Structures are given as C-alpha cells and as structure tokens.
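At this stage, I needed to go through a protein sequence along with its fold in token form, as given directly below:
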Amino acid sequence: MKPIIVSEKVISNRLRFMRILCLVSLLVTVVYWYARIDVVRNSIRGEGVVVDTERCVNETCSGRRRSYPVVSYATGNVVHTFKSTTMLEIPVYMQGDVVPILVSSDGNRAHINTFLRLWGAPILWTLIFGFTLTMYILMHKRRVNF
C-alpha cells in the first residue's frame, strides 16, 4: 500500500482550520465559564418546593414521556413559580420535594441548582477546546495527515 502524499498547502489549510476551531472553542469556553461564575456570584441560594410536574405535549418530546418540574419559592411576601428548563424523561422530583434553587438578585428569575445544570456546558466546552488544541498541536508538530 502506497503512503498518501499530501501537499504542504493542504496541510497548511488544515492547520489554519484547526487554529480557527481552537480559537472559537476557546472563546465559547471563556464565555460559558464567565457567565456561570457571574450567575453564582449574583444569585441567592435558596430552596423551592416542587408543586407540579408538567408533561411535555409538543413535537420536541419525540413521542417520549417527558416532564418539567414546576417549582414555587418565596421572596419576601411574594410567591414565585417557575417551570424548570430541564426536561426529564424519568421524573426525579416529585410533588412536595424541596429542591435547591438559585434566584437572581432581583428575585424574578430562578432555576433548580444542580451541578450539571450549572457546570455541564462549561465543562463540555472545556473538553472540546482541549480536544481541538491537542489535535492542532499534533498536526502542527508532526504534520500528521488528518
């Protein structure tokens, strides 16, 4: 089997593409980490009570039984209720469960405080950045044909 010969121009274009991917993934990673740290700094930790679970009935459910927990919490004398943005296939929260929440400093926005909800996207983008950086370094140092 003959080795595949790739021109220097093709390798250079691939390196340029990987460099752009690295920079884009780095930018997205930094934005996600900054946003999550900002949310943690400017939010108030509290507790809410699951008052209901709404079933998903539109086309986004793909025919599966999914639900959203509906959580109620109080700020001062005002009671707020929100539907979690996390769609669950298997209901994790039952009616009456007390859940940890993060409430915005103005008290108008809240979400259930879970590790995956808060840190999942920044960690995923950090891994994507690490992968693209590793591929770029390998391609640059060894001029590997990918």
Summary: The domain at 44-113 is CATH 2.40.50 (OB fold (Dihydrolipoamide Acetyltransferase, E2P)). The first helix runs from residue 8 to 42.
